[in-house]
Write a structure and sequence with these properties.
Structural class: alpha/beta
Helix content: 25-40%
Number of strands: 15
Strand order of the largest sheet: 4-3-2-1-11-12
Distance between the termini: 90 Å
Order of helices and strands: EHEHEHEEEHEHEEEEEEHEEHHHH
Radius of gyration: 28 Å
CATH topology of the largest domain: Purple Acid Phosphatase, chain A, domain 2
Largest sheet: 6 strands, mixed
Length: about 375
């Protein structure tokens, strides 16, 4: 038997909404031609309350599946027990069977598959919820047992401690564990754990440049093949500058975009710019052009900022007060840029209170008007 394993469609995702529909539709149609059933591991929708248009398009897409679909809800769809989540509505209009804390048996040609699904729960309760669910779970001995979840796995998400561990998952009585939530394609536990990743770009980071698609799992061989779907090309670029001016930065960005767009005119491009700019300039002085489907993260002068903060942290060493250091920095940054009033005096008034600040500004405004007269 062949099982298509797919997750994280994020239908209605605002930034790349049409991509979310087109890539999900392609995956569902292709998977239904290759497999005997489909498992959707959560986050079919991007929001708990999607637009009616998004719900309608989701129904149209999933109705194109020619085989049964078993699904769980993800964290983007999770609502309180007494409230309906969007996957419930989708299931009511299609051939989706929604699972949450329960098992369903699927049989074909004498082969049995039992799918146990647990929709997303808050991470701090994930390990406890899974352990409690396992107390009531009964595996089948004459077929294969599959677990579908949508949670953080600690070893796969840096800094995570509240999720589920790989060590615990390995002890569970399942032939296959399917997980959503993590948007990268990952195989762990010797192929026992499969994470297909998302079918649409949702995070502008380097790992999102990898192919999008789903797993096709063969129950006979217990092996999975990754099936790629067509997507718009995504490029993640990094540019480094040293004591650069605005023109140099703008031209470098323009060239990189132009080079990519020559071969991929509809590509999505993320550019991170690092390094330093010329003395006397601030990051706000660097005006960058807007480009369609280009996203620029400006990290210029972050090193200088860190150095400034480090200098402020060491104020005890030179017997300077925090206030004195701040005033000095303020004077340097506003030198020849703010002439209507003394920036240090304004800082003093701000420390005292709102009324004193307003009085100070009104006084200077009055003085300027008298000078003009």
């Amino acid at each position: 038997m062949k099982i298509a394993i797919i997750a994280d469609h994020h239908l209605g995702y605002q930034r790349f909404e049409e991509d979310s529909y087109a890539q999900t539709e392609q995956a569902i149609i292709l998977a239904s031609e290759q497999a005997d059933l489909i498992i959707c591991a959560g986050d079919i929708f991007d929001t708990k309350i999607p637009k009616l248009e998004t719900l309608k398009r989701a129904v149209d897409i999933f109705k194109k599946a020619k085989i049964p679909i078993f699904a769980i809800h993800g964290n983007h769809e999770r609502r309180s027990k007494e409230m309906t989540n969007p996957v419930q509505l989708l299931a009511a209009s299609t051939n989706i069977t929604l699972l949450h804390g329960e098992s369903k048996l699927f049989e074909k040609n004498g082969e049995k598959i039992q799918i146990f699904g647990i929709g997303s729960v808050p991470e701090e309760y994930a390990a406890i919820a899974l352990k409690k669910a396992m107390e009531k779970y009964s595996k089948i001995d004459d077929g294969q047992n599959i677990l579908a979840i949508h949670q953080t796995i600690n070893e796969l998400v840096p800094g995570s401690e509240e999720g589920i561990s790989l060590e615990y998952l390995e002890t569970l009585p399942f032939d296959l564990i399917v997980n959503g939530h993590i948007h990268e394609t990952i195989t762990k536990l010797g192929g026992k754990l499969l994470i297909p990743g998302s079918t649409v770009i949702t995070q502008l980071k380097k790992s999102e440049t990898l192919p999008k698609g789903y797993f096709l799992y063969d129950t006979a061989t217990k092996k999975a093949e990754f099936i790629e779907v067509d997507t718009r090309k995504f490029f993640y670029e990094e540019l480094e500058f040293h004591e650069a001016g605005e023109l140099e930065i703008r031209e470098a960005i323009q060239k990189r975009i132009r080079d990519i767009r020559e071969e991929h005119p509809k590509a999505i491009i993320a550019i991170k710019i690092d390094g330093t700019i010329k003395k006397g300039l601030t990051t706000s002085d660097i005006k960058l052009d807007d480009y369609e489907n280009v996203y620029i993260k400006n990290n210029l002068n972050m090193e200088s900022l860190s150095a400034t903060l480090e200098r402020i942290r060491g104020i005890n060493q030179d017997n300077s007060s925090m206030k004195e250091v701040a005033l000095k920095e303020l004077r340097e940054k506003t030198k020849e840029k703010v002439t209507a009033f003394d920036s240090a005096e304004l800082f003093e008034k701000l420390l005292i209170g709102v009324d004193e600040t307003i009085e100070y500004l009104e006084k200077h405004d009055l003085n300027r008007q008298e000078q003009k007269e």
